[in-house]
Amino acid sequence: MKATMDKLVNLCKGRGIIYPGSEIYGGMGNTWDYGPVGVEIKNNIKRAWWKRFVQESENSYGIDAAILMNSRVWEASGHTTSFSDPKMDCKNCKTRHRADTLIEMHSKGKVNPDTMTNEEMEAYIREHHVTCPKCGKSDFTPIRTFNLMFETTRGVTEEGQNVVYLRPETAQGEFVNFLNVQRTTRAKVPFGIGQIGKAFRNEITPGNFIFRTIEFEQMEHQWFCKKGTDGEYYEYFKKAAWDFLVDLDFDPSHLRYKDHDKLAHYAKAACDIQYLFPIGWSELNGIHNRTDYDLSRHSQFSGKNMEYTDPVTGEKYVPYVIEYSIGADRLMLAALTEAYDEETLEGGDTRVVMRFSPAIAAYKAAVLPLQKNLSEGARAIYRKLSKEFMCTYDEAGSIGKRYRRQDEIGTPFCVTVDFDTEKDGTVTVRDRDTMEQIRISADKLVPYIAEKIRF
Ligand code: ATP
Predict the structure, then answer these.
(1) How far is Cα 369 from Cα 217, in angstroms, rounded to an integer?
(2) H helix intervals, 251-319
(3) Which of 201, 331, 396, 413 has the smallest number of CB atoms closer than 10 Å to its CB?
(4) Residues with Cβ within 6 A of ligand 1?
(5) Closest-lying ligand 1 atom to the alpha carbon of residue 331
């Protein structure tokens, strides 16, 4: 693994992948803006996920629910009372920390704070003289719990204002629409609902580039099934989540399953897939067997019966839910890490090359005229290819420099237009990974590239 966080941040900024948010005003901590290249990659990641888990998943349906939801939703889900992290302040330098993270860092992952109470965490930190990562002192306030939901208000007059929350996860949109989707699609259990959308968390310790931010996108799929079949579907989605990553060209040795040691009170089973990020092994996605907790709670709080009636047997029951949840931005960081390579070339030169799966690369092809006076023909090819997929055009600088620029953003194919193109209609196609070049008819470019970028 050759990527470090610094290298990724610099490359992303310099190549239009991701910029610091509100930069001209000095930034806004832990917000990031996707640039022209980054937005394409992220959209391709989302498209690949949607294709796999909605389009190709038999009996799965997509939705796009509102970010602002009735506040009762968050009471039913338990977020208003228990969506919090154990927070501690360093009395010396006043920085804020998560007690569980301090313990994990201090024990180098050997102690699992998930199984500890707040008192046990405080005792551990005291007894082991766990120090502040910023100033090195070991002098913390007691743990206080801190709700991670962003609050805002709605209403036109001061008096008539109600507190509303920016959703901290997309999942509740799927749960509250269970009956709508089931009835309008006439879906039979088991079936799934998938959604991609923004979520917001007032994280105590955001950071590590786009790993943990306060605003991020989630891709979530809830599978509604009958109790008794839940174990089998849990295993199915564990595998499906893994296969999705491997099909995006992730090296399986950079992935591992991690079962949760402490289960949420409603969960029957839960595991993460961790990825070997530049910061070490960390959660990339989660798979949870949430039992019938969510639908039962919404039934209880809304007064609506969330039972499903089996059309054959007439049996009524509240389905179990298998949840698969992955952050689009966290997957983007994993994809950037996985793709980053520095290669020493013959003659001693080095090149940085992003070896993205062609399916998620921002531009599928770059069209490059060998010289500027070939630009008319080159632009015509660019226009033709652009009708089929995202392409870029570059005529500035030596051809070698232009190849390097495309390598750094991971463009899988460079199409070079030269003097022979005018004579016989052929172009060269350079492969990003092998740097080998082949000569093909410009008319064959579309099927040639389409075949290689399919997911
Ligand atoms: P963590 O333990 O890292 O805080 P979590 O267990 O709270 O994560 P979930 O609530 O299961 O995470 O969210 C599902 C997925 O959403 C995570 O696996 C991750 O990919 C993504 N995610 C969660 N929080 C953030 C965040 N603050 N920034 C970016 N992505 C996030």
Answers:
(1) 38
(2) 293-302
(3) 396
(4) 169, 201, 203, 212-213, 216, 218, 283-286, 325-327, 329-330
(5) 20
